[in-house]
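Before a computer can learn anything about folding, someone has to put a protein's shape into writing. The outcome of that step, for a single protein, is printed below:
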Amino acid sequence: MSRLSLYVNDRGQCVMHYSGFSILAGIALFIWALHRRLYLFSVVALALEITYGALVVQLSDNVQLILFAVQFVVLGSVANRIHLYLLNRRGWLLTDQERAAGSEAT
């Protein structure tokens, strides 16, 4: 799978989709969603992060560290897949992909 893909909608607007792990989404999902212009998703993510933070604060430091590491890996791995799903659901069409390193242009 390519790292970068270019999508276009019926109005001619273009958007880049990055596949793979997202460090920003692992740290702050709502900021990642704002960066991708997923405004409703950003509000939901912010509400979930505030609720999650309020619950985790009551746990010990070691448990908090483990939960943050799990959250970082899971959200960082899943965020770009969610973006791709939302692009396809809204009717964006794939127009071009970055070629893998070492592949020849035809």
Summary: The chain has a mean pLDDT of 88. Residues 4-95 form one domain.
